[in-house]
Protein: Small ribosomal subunit protein uS7
Organism: Methanospirillum hungatei JF-1
Amino acid sequence: MSEEVSAPARLLFNRWDTSEVTIRDPGIARYVNLNSMMVPHSCGRLTRQEFHKANMLIVERLINQLMRTEVNTGKKQLAIRIVRDAFEIVHQKTKKNPIEVLCDAVANAGPREETVRLKYGGINVPKSVDTAPMRRVNTAVGLIAAGVYSASHKKKKPVANALAEELIAAANGDVKCYSVAKREERERVAKSAR
């Protein structure tokens, strides 16, 4: 009788299992991709069409946002190493799967309400609108990356430590972290424009 051999699961960075991660926010669950891959590098396959970045692994989207600063521009291997080291720090501090911490951070850092400018006879009037789920995810990842950059640029704190602290604080909903503070600010402005 032959034994069935199941294919080994592909773990992110050969360590983290994405299948055990649950996304608690149902609004963004469709746009946070958790397909398993060893190295989060899609080689630009998902950038040619408009909404295909929803199919990109959320970790790779974070890596791509970290590459946008002038120090890390185009250095994907450096950004991958930063995220891998930050995930190790997150796991040491929280004893949780860091991908789940990242998903919670994205859910807590994305603004639910924003403002747009409407022009009435030469006068700009702010109007509050609900944020689309894909924009929530994009904005959250961008705010997390901006918070990491502001916490580590021209400072002695390593980038991996800054990313780990930002992810943990955003996952807990701490208003002292950059991304959640910016989300609160945007929602406060939107609330005043209702």
In short: The domain at 29-107+132-173 is CATH 1.10.455.10 (Ribosomal Protein S7). The beta strands are 113-120, 123-130.
